[in-house]
Amino acid sequence: DISGGSTSATQRATNGVHNGAGNNATTNQTNTQGQTTNSSCHKGCGGSGQDQSSTQGSTTLQGALAGALAGQNAVNGNSPANTAGGDIFGGCDLADQIAKNHAGNGSSNTAGTAQTGGETQTT
């Protein structure tokens, strides 16, 4: 025989995941060139022979990876058991379980590039 009393089982499980990733890149380039010639030769004498060249290049590579994993397995058992073959006469059984789980992750990148170039020639 199994005679029961009162049993109670309470279980609260909370699970949360927060994740964020961000990138910010700024590239500024400025190039100024100027030529002035005071040559009195305008045609047919070869000119003043000036040449200017300016090159700018910029490369910005960014990667942001963020991962968060929160796994939870909450098990609560409240039951009378008889494995010896005798009688179970119940009383009051109580099982209470609270499980909380949280995972948070963040990733960020910031890059700035500024280039300025200037050339002036006067003949």
Summary tags:
123 residues; mainly beta; two-stranded parallel sheet; two-stranded parallel ribbon; rod-shaped
Write the layout of secondary structure elements.
Elements: E1 2-3, E2 6-36, E3 88-89, E4 92-122
Give a description of the structure.
Helices cover 0% and strands 54% of the residues. The chain has strands at residues 2-3, 6-36, 88-89, 92-122. A two-stranded parallel sheet has the order 1-3. The protein has a two-stranded parallel sheet with strand order 2-4.
Summarize the structure.
By secondary structure, the protein is mainly β.
- The SS-based structural class is mainly beta
Low-confidence stretches: none
Taking Cα atoms only, what radius of gyration do you get, to the nearest Å? 39 Å
Please tell me what the overall shape is. rod-shaped
Continuous helix count = 0
Largest beta-sheet characterization: 2 strands, parallel
